[in-house]
TrEMBL record:
The keyword Ligase does not apply. GO terms for biological process: transmembrane transport. It is a multi-pass membrane protein. It comes from Anopheles minimus. PANTHER family: RE38146P (PTHR45928). Coiled coil: none annotated. This is Mitochondrial carrier protein. The keyword Transmembrane helix applies. Belongs to the mitochondrial carrier (TC 2.A.29) family. It is found in: Mitochondrion inner membrane. It comes from the Eukaryota.
């Protein structure tokens, strides 16, 4: 039941946060490996040397997507995004809740509890992202697709989630569906550790106050706001890397055209774009992570409260 509740909570949250996910993906891919001083892009990067950036801010990104793709463009990749959220978070939150139920996240001291929460948050994130990896890749590739001056990164030509999964499998086999896997594992391990550890710690802290004990939803909301901030700060560089690893084109052997590994992507991005490149899309990423964390973990706690109320 804990696994099902975790997946349902994340799916509900994913519907509201997906437009910011689309914007975040576009911003992370714009100017990929383009020197910040406007020089020619690195060989083979596929980056454009134009100085016009249709995704320079969240507001401009909304306008650009609405102008080029209409309202539905803001929910691009929604099917694969929701499928990813359910597959990944049913496992991730289910494992973490099981660990909490067994008190494996509890240490002898507050510091010990925090460290155990970080460890279980990371482990649950690794397992969940391993299972859901193909769906994240498809989500990223569909969200990145646009046309004309609004196109960023490598443009894949998938028509749907099913078309993408079957097409990748036919061309590159089962390994093709997990290409870029180290990127999402790193991203999710860092993000999940920060999210679940800070969420649990904040809930314990807030439970000392009367206002928090009176409402599960208010406590979860307050803890989620803090958790979302720390998650975004720690996860953003690895989120950029995961996006670029998954969206890059591949050769006939299924090898990436731009990056060989997480380290290679990190090094090339830092060298070409500086620290700014690793935090591209930070603002929409926060606007995605913060409400998603708030909705996801609030739904999760509320679902568990209803379960306990009706099923004991």
């Amino acid at each position: 039941m804990d696994f099902l509740l975790g997946g349902c909570a994340a799916t509900c949250a994913g519907f509201f946060s997906n437009p910011f996910d689309v914007i975040k993906t576009r911003q992370q891919l714009h100017g990929e490996l383009l020197q910040r001083n406007g020089q020619t892009p690195s060989p083979g990067s596929g980056a454009s040397s134009t100085t016009t950036n249709p995704y320079s801010s969240v507001i401009r990104s909304f306008r650009s997507i609405l102008r080029s793709e209409g309202v539905l463009g803001l929910q691009k990749g929604l099917v694969s995004a929701l499928a990813f959220q359910f597959a990944m978070n049913s496992v991730r939150l289910g494992i973490y809740q099981t660990a909490e139920n067994c008190e494996w996240t509890r240490g002898d001291t507050p510091a010990g509890t925090l460290l155990r929460s970080i460890a279980w948050g990371g482990l649950s994130g690794v397992v969940g992202s391993t299972i859901a990896c193909p769906l994240y890749m498809v989500k990223t590739q569909i969200q990145a697709r646009s046309h004309g001056k609004y196109a960023v990164g490598y443009q894949h030509r998938h028509t749907s989630t099913l078309d993408a999964l079957t097409g990748i499998y036919r061309t590159h086999g089962i390994r093709g569906l997990w290409r870029g896997y180290p990127g999402i594992v790193t991203r999710t391990a860092i993000g999940s550790s920060a999210q679940l550890a800070t969420f649990s710690t904040c809930k314990d802290l807030f439970s000392q106050f009367d206002w928090a004990r009176e409402s599960v939803a208010i406590t979860a909301f307050a803890a989620s706001m803090v958790s979302g901030f720390f998650t975004c700060v720690f996860m953003s560089p690895f989120d950029v890397i995961a996006t670029r690893l998954f969206n890059q084109g591949v050769d006939a052997n299924g090898r990436g055209l731009l990056y060989r590994s997480v380290v290679d992507c990190f090094t090339k991005t830092l060298r070409a774009e500086g620290l700014h490149g690793l935090y591209k899309g930070f603002v929409p990423n926060y606007w995605r992570i913060a409400p998603h964390t708030i909705l996801n973990l609030t739904f999760w706690d509320q679902f568990k409260a209803w379960r306990d109320l009706y099923y004991g």
